Amino acid sequence: MGKKVKVAGVELKDKISSLIYYFPCRAQPKKKKKVDVKKEQAQKERMKKKLKKLEKAAPELIPIEDFITPLKYSESSRMRSLPALSPQESERRVLLLKKWCLFKQKQDEAEKKAIKGLVESQQEALRELRLESEELYQAAVRRDEGLFPFQRDGPTYTPPLPGYDPPEGKCIDITKVYTQ
């Protein structure tokens, strides 16, 4: 065990960790590196040369992979050939299509007839109601706002707040980098 030391009325062990805890120390500031003017000038010159070289060279077009169809999909040999149908099968399909068309036509006519009957009975009921009471008729033909509720919010676009720095989320960048 280490010996105990009393500092400012507090008993401490002579371990360094306890001393650091009671007497916090600051780290010495790092010395700034001296900038060599000649090296910095040479680096600027190199960068200017690289920029001139890039400006002289014709820029390469970066391929857009989404618009390029692989050759294996554009081959004409990949066309599927339909199996030849027997005359009985083709006749069966034609008859089936005709029956389907007739069924859908009758279904449509029945629906239209039902709607027409409902509208006629509604008109008849409104005529009878008008003969009974004009107030009730006006209440019946008034539009019901709660039947089809309509809500409208304000503008969906708002300008950005000045000086607001949005937090960055996690994003995995899978963009291919092309060098020119």
Automatic annotation (TrEMBL):
Transmembrane segments: none annotated. Gene3D superfamilies: 6.10.250.3440. It is found in: Mitochondrion. Pfam families: MRP-L28. Residues 30-57, 112-139 form a coiled coil. GO terms for cellular component: mitochondrial large ribosomal subunit; nucleolus. The keyword Coiled coil applies. It comes from the Eukaryota. The keyword Electron transport does not apply. Keywords: Coiled coil, Mitochondrion, Ribonucleoprotein, Ribosomal protein, Transit peptide. Belongs to the mitochondrion-specific ribosomal protein mL40 family. This is Large ribosomal subunit protein mL40. It comes from Ficedula albicollis.
